[in-house]
Amino acid sequence: NHFNENYINCVSNQIHSNVIVFGSHSGEGIKTDADGLVGNKCNQNLWVYTADCMPIFFADKKTRNIAALHCGRKGLEKNIIKNLVKIFDELGTSRENLLIAIGPAISKEHYLVDNKTFKEFYNKAENKNNLNRTEKEFCCNDLNKFKGQNLSQFDLKKVAYKQLLDENIPYKNIDISNLCTYELKNEFNSWRRDKTISRQWNIICSSK
User: Fold this and answer.
1) So what's the pLDDT on residue 22?
2) Most buried by CB count within 10 Å: which residue of 17, 31, 202, 207?
3) Are the C-beta atoms of residues 69 and 84 closer than 8 Å to each other?
4) Cβ neighbour number for residue 28 with a 10 Å cutoff
5) Whether 36 contacts 19, CB under 8 Å
6) Would you say 94 and 61 are in contact if contact means Cβ atoms under 8 Å apart?
7) Is the CB of residue 118 less than 8 Å from the CB of residue 70?
8) What is the mean pLDDT of each run of 10 residues along the chain (208 residues)?
9) Which residues does residue 156 pair with via DSSP β-bridges, in sequence order?
C-alpha cells in the first residue's frame, strides 16, 4: 500500500537486452521492451522481475537518481552495465557517489553452460571491453572441473562485479547478495531448477 500510494509503478517487457529506458517511458499502462529502468521523476517504483538472473540496483547518494537492471549472461555480454553507467555520467553522477546492490541470483555452482557458449561470451566481452584476461579469470570458472562433460561454470555475480570495477566503481560501493535462487527452493523461483513462469519482483523506489 505504501509503494502504491502516490507512486507510479514502472516495469518493462524484459528481453535479455542492453536497452535502458527512463521510468516515464515504462509507467502505468506502458510496456516497453527494455532490461533497464532509470528514475527520472519523483515517486517512481522501478520494478524488475527475475528467476535466476540478477536484479541490480543503482543509487546516487548525492543526486538521489536511481536505476534498476535485469541482468543475466546476455545482458553482461551486451554491456548493459556499461550502458547504464554512461547514463549516470550524463546525469552528472560521480562514481564515488554511486551505490550498487546485486540481488539474489543463480550461483556458479548451479549455473552450467556448454563450453561453446562460455567461449563465445568470453570472446565477445574481451573484444568489447579491450580486456586482457584469461578465460578462467574473466568468468571465474574451474576449467578442469567438468573436463570431458562439455560444461563450464559461469559466475554471473562475479562477472558483474568485475564489469563494475572496470567502470571505476569503488569496490566498497558494491554489495553482492550471496543467496542462490536455484539452491533456496523455499525462498526463490528458479527457471533453471523448475522451468517455472513464476518470478521474483524486485523494487527500488525514487522519493527525491
Assistant:
1) 94
2) 202
3) yes
4) 8
5) yes
6) no
7) no
8) 79 96 83 93 92 97 95 95 97 96 97 88 68 51 60 92 96 98 96 95 86
9) none
Give the integer Cα–Cα distance in Å for 73 and 117.
10
Beta strands across the sheet bearing 36-38: 20-22, 36-38, 66-71, 54-60, 98-102, 174-176
| Cα 86 from Cα 186, distance rounded (Å) | 38
Q: Which helix (H) or strand (E) holds 193?
A: helix 191-194
- How distant, in Å, are the alpha carbons of 11, 184, 205 from that of 6? 16, 34, 12
Distance CA 100, CA 83 (A): 15
> Which residues does 93 contact at the CB level (< 8 Å), separation at least 6?
60, 62, 63, 65
Single-letter code of the amino acid located at 200: Q
**Dihedral angle sign, alpha carbons of residues 105, 190, 200, 86:** positive
Tell me what pLDDT residue 200 has: 96
Q: Which amino acid belongs to residue 168? A: N
Predicted confidence at residue 156, as pLDDT, reads 95
Element (H, E) at 74: helix 73-77
Mention every residue, 6+ apart, whose C-beta is less than 8 A from residue 3.
9, 45, 203, 205
Residue 154 Cα distances to 53, 127, 192, angstroms: 12, 19, 13
Entry field: residues in the chain: 208
Copy the grid coordinates of residue 69: 537492471
